[in-house]
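dumping this here before i forget
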Amino acid sequence: MRNNLFFRKENIRSIFILILISLLYTFPSFIMLNTNVFNYEVFMGIRYIGVVIISIIFVFIYLKLFTTDNNRLIVPYKNVNIGVLLIWLTFSSGIFFSQVINQEFPFQGVYFLIVVPLLFFLMIPLTISEIANKIIAMALLLSGGIFLIFSFLFEPINFDRSYFGITDNSNSLGYLATQTGIAAFCLLLNAFKNRKKILVYLFILIFLLSTFFVFLSHSRTSFIVLLVTCFSTMLIFMLQNNIKLRNLFLPALIFIGVYYWQLRDLLMDGVISKFDRLGEEGDLLNTRDEIWLQIINDANLIGNGSDYFDETPFSPHSSIFSIIGEFGIISGLLLVVMYVTTIYLSLKFAIQRKDESFSYLPFSIILAFILFSFTEGMFGTVGKGLTLAYFNSIGVCIFLNKSMHNKKISRNTDFHDHQ
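structure:
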């Protein structure tokens, strides 16, 4: 039994880490559960307690792995992409000082300024090191897929209206389906590269089922994010591996066949018809433009405080406008700079590490997160599963450079191999 591949120590450790990351990405999504079915207070308690417990576990694992024989803690500083880290710290400082000036306890500022860079940028990516991107992709698939499975099992599908399953609205289900679909697509590309036919067909199936749920939700944002992210990721993957279009003939044929067999009518009757209806009404943004104009009119340099949207009859429907309304124009502009910088950083990572598996994943996650944040709130005390994956992917690009990747950095290799 000990010689069985499954029971090798490194596989057990990888499975343990995968479970932890999957739970870490699952708990934040509890905020999207249907409160008519689930007890809000109970699941919010589980949400926060779960994230805190798993975070503490990763802190202990990091301390175990990165403490030397003379009890010195190792923190990487050479060949680190310091620019994006400085931008994030400046953005977080803006949040912190905005809350202080508005006479609030700066909880959000402290979380962004200390917890995010130390835990999500540094500790978690370095703890899972060379398998980080694979673990993140699989965890996103599992943490999103579980909601789709329970929705299918406990909430009957009605093709005559927008489907939201066990979530609070159809946009939430569309978001979770998109998260699952993008993760499946990234895993599919890696399986295709390594010629693992069974996994190729498995991830094609998961991707198609996720797309099916996106169409059922009638969510325009989810449809656009799925389409743009997968297409962009495909282009990067093809450039990385010098793949000719003819090599994609069979997967494309399968998708086209299933699309015309099952998905086309769902797309036309749901997402596309919604575009047409709102376009004819002259309200393609579904009143979001009016909301954003009001936020801009109320905006100032330091923000209106964390309770700004509690005192208005509307929600921001955008991470950028949420930051502008609550924490000010300066913080909003710094967030835009952060978005541009992380896209560039992830593209650079994909180009420089093109021979490594899943080197395109940080770009996929960062792009999907940014696209969602244009029309959805993605931050908050914890955010969503994709928010934490965004943080982790930034950490991968900042800290998992080749010098750290190939260097033995701790004497404690009994938990994870750093060779």
